[in-house]
Amino acid sequence: MISFPIKNILTVMSLVMMSMCTTGPRRAAVQAWSTPLLGRKQTGVVLTRLWTSTSTTTDAASTTSTTAILGTPATSFDDGQRPFQITTPIYYVNDKPHIGHAYTSVACDVLARFMRLSGRQVFFLSGTDEHGQKVQQSAETKGVSPQAFVDEVSTNFVDLLDLLQISNDDFVRTTQVQHQAAVQHLWQTLVEKDQIYLGQYEGWYSVRDECFYTESELVDGKAPTGADVEWVAKEESYFFKLSEYEDKLLEFYDQNPEFMAPVARTNEVKAFVSGGLRDLSVSRTSFSWGVPVPETKLSAQAQEDHVMYVWIDALTNYLSALGYPGKSRDGNNGDESTATSNYDTFWPAALHVVGKDILRFHAVYWPALLMAADLPLPKRLFAHGWWTKDGQKNFQIFGQCH
Questions:
Q1: Using one digit for the tens of pLDDT, what is the confidence trace for 265-311?
Q2: Residue 1 pLDDT greater than 70, yes or no
Q3: For residue range 188-202, what is the model confidence (pLDDT) as tens digits?
């Protein structure tokens, strides 16, 4: 038996159909179909907003008139007016795209289109996460270089978005020069603020999850996600002072109760942080496919073969695509541009949409890193569930999406 959030999928489909409707009969058909899903009041509000944003021609004068839509209803985390950055997670390129990637992309696309129709300035970002031990191993298995491997697989994700007619404004790749420069700038900022130090890491690590786990988190010798773990024996590593942000994070969650959704995710994250945070290993020397640690005041203490922990690299994409710390990027091809940076316009992001399996990185590590660098925090984080089969996470229920 296949179990998945059918109401969420149908709601997304309903909104997509509504955004495409331009004629009376088609609007009436969609309204009749969507009202049981969204409720009469919500359907009416959304349809009215979408319809009134459409240009109409009068028969008498044969002139065109457009009803201006200026913003969306304000909430505790969004004033309904400011520029709106919405992001998918950047998708990991160790394999081909699947139904989960399509699900997240379509959901974000619906929101981006609705915000544009409402008169909001929108920056809709997607992309691919192309570094890490898992990618290096996948490339070695295939007998190609890591760069050749990610070039091929990243193209599959671009093709998926094109196939689904996703309206993303940019597609970031973590192997791009501009992105790597942004990551290294963030690293240098953290070093200057004494938030990174050199030490040695020893503990459990999951290559599949690209995540460190404590002994108490393991379930029957595996990661909580079911992934295999391996013991890393005293590897030289830089550490981020995550333990200093336990109280600051809990205070932030209490002051911003709608930062995370749904509510169950907030409770989960609070429990994790309240259990105590350890400093986070943020570099590796056992593999080479990653962003090199830049030269800093700490460099003389360390070996020269450190690459950054993949999640510092990956999370920074939300900044680098906006031009942090300098030049912006020009369109979906990711070419460098001398245009004005979008960072001041769109950051902090209005909404990060992620799967629940990467909630910890976005709800704990990412806010702590931004706090440490004195950068604004995103306004909202939504962690959706998984497609499952017989209670197990399964993204290949309907075959690969490619």
A1: 999 999 999 999 999 999 988 888 999 999 888 876 655 689 998 88
A2: no
A3: 999 999 999 998 877
Instruction: Enumerate long-range contacts of 321-330, CB under 8 Å, 24 or more apart.
Output: 321/125, 321/127, 321/170, 321/172, 321/179, 322/85, 322/123, 322/346, 322/347, 324/182, 324/185, 324/186, 325/182, 325/185, 327/178, 329/170, 329/172, 329/178
| Cα–Cα distances in angstroms (integers) from residue 288 to residues 50, 137, 154, 304, in the given order | 49, 11, 20, 11
Contact 229, 197 (CB under 8 A): no
Per-residue confidence band for 14, with pLDDT thresholds at 50, 70 and 90? low
Q: Which two tokens stand for residue 97?
A: 């795209």
Instruction: Give the tokens for residue 373.
Output: 């660098």
pLDDT for residue 90 is more than 80:
yes
In terms of C-beta density within 10 A (0-12 exposed, 13-18 middle, 19 or more buried), how is residue 263 classed?
A: exposed
Residue 48 in 3-state DSSP? helix
Confirm if 192 and 294 have CB atoms less than 8 A apart: no
The structure's pTM equals 0.78
Provide mean pLDDT across the span 148-157. Answer: 94
Mean pLDDT of the 113-118 span: 93
CA atoms within 13 A on the CB side of 268: 15
- Nearest of 291, 237, 260 to residue 129 by alpha carbon: 291
Contact 69, 118 (CB under 8 A): yes
Is the model more confident about 307 or about 24? 307
Q: For residue 132, how many other CB atoms are within 10 A of its CB?
A: 27
Is residue 40 exposed (0-12), middle (13-18) or buried (19+ Cβ within 10 Å)?
exposed
Closest by CA to 69, choosing from 124, 7, 11, 19, is: 19
> Which pLDDT does position 400 carry in this prediction?
31
* Alpha carbon distance 173, 351 (integer Å): 20
| DSSP string covering 340-390 | PPSHHHHPSPSEEEEEGGGHHIIIIIHHHHHHHTT-PPPS-EEEE---EET
3-state secondary structure of 137: helix
Q: Distance between CA 362 and CA 343 in Å, rounded?
A: 19
Find, among 212, 238, 209, the residue nearest to 226 by Cα: 209
